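Narrative of accomplishments. A recurring question from our advisory board has been how the design workflow behaves on a single, concrete structure rather than in aggregate. To address it, we present the structure tokens for one chain from the evaluation set, followed by the sequence designed for it. No filtering or post-editing was applied between the two.
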């Protein structure tokens, strides 16, 4: 004889009853299922509360801009920010976004073509530094597409229980499915749409405004290569330099050096850097991460020692990053 017990999210536990203490066995399994169901419900409620908090913040910011007497607009905004309505609209808009590590629009803001999400599993030569050199936690993907829809990516970056909504969607998390919709079919459809942000929407293609290189072949033909800007690598380098320059720890170390006092650690300097700006007055048109760096990208000098680390007047070798790291998409003639 066997029975099957189901939890809140549809998981099942089948138990074979034996002649030895059957009631004790059933009681233990029932208790485990009830504990799991309570945890599932708590996680679902936490996700729903996080989503509602995000939408309420956006709604409040928009309502504060309305003038007195604009009751029609006020009610329209309230209706648009109801979770089922907003999420359904986000599912439609997420199709215009793509998660990438190498972006095309840095070559030209009007370029229309393929951007890539490419993190090499195996590193290249030890002497080369690229996106593959970044640790998983440091390789933060960028988002390209319609800048008006970047709020959808902000939604997918929400964290609950140490996991983002995007990560849960990619893992087909049953708790997120239940939190998004009471309908299993609708929840699965919405999660699949959100997970699609990591996938290429179209066939690889270049554009007349993109950078292109003709690479000759021995048979007289050529490959047309399209170098792409390594946005994740550049953002990681920018973040590292900002931290080394302006963090509290770096300031304390510089102050100790200036006053000739001992200090437990040194600081880093990066002389002769160049700054390139992207996006003009609206860097968001290039990518999602561009505004966070104020549209700036840092260029290192072409020398063996791109930075100098000072530790109480002692020099140490820094991490030197070569200029011009980029991925390419190849197109045969």
């Amino acid at each position: 004889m066997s029975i099957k017990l189901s939890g809140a999210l549809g998981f099942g536990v089948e138990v074979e009853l034996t002649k030895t203490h059957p009631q004790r066995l059933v009681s233990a399994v029932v208790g485990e299922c009830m504990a799991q169901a309570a945890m599932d419900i708590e996680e679902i409620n936490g996700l729903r509360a996080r989503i509602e908090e995000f939408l309420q913040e956006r709604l409040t910011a928009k309502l504060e801009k309305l003038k007195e007497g604009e009751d029609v607009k006020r009610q329209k905004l309230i209706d648009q920010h109801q979770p089922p309505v907003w999420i359904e609209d986000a599912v439609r808009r997420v199709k215009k976004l793509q998660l990438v590590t190498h972006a095309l629009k840095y070559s030209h803001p009007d370029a229309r073509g393929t951007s890539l999400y490419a993190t090499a599993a195996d590193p290249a030569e030890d002497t080369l530094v690229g996106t593959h050199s970044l640790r998983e936690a440091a390789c933060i993907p960028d988002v390209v597409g319609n800048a008006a829809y970047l709020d959808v990516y902000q939604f997918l970056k929400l964290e609950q229980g140490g996991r983002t909504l995007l990560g849960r969607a990619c893992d087909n998390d049953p708790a997120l499915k239940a939190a998004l919709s009471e309908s299993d079919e609708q929840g699965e459809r919405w999660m699949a749409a959100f997970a699609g942000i990591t996938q290429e929407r179209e066939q690889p293609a270049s554009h007349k405004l993109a950078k292109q290189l003709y690479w000759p072949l021995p048979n007289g033909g050529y490959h047309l290569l399209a170098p792409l800007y390594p946005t994740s690598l550049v953002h990681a380098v920018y973040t590292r330099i900002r931290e080394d320059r302006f963090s509290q720890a770096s300031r304390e170390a510089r102050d100790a050096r200036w006053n000739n006092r001992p200090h437990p650690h040194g600081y880093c300097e990066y002389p002769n850097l160049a700054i390139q700006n992207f996006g003009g007055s609206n860097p968001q048109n290039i990518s999602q991460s561009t505004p966070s760096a104020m549209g700036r990208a840092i260029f290192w000098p072409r020398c063996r020692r791109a930075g100098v680390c000072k530790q109480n007047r002692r020099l140490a070798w820094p991490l030197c990053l070569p200029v011009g790291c980029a991925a390419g998409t190849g197109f045969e003639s």
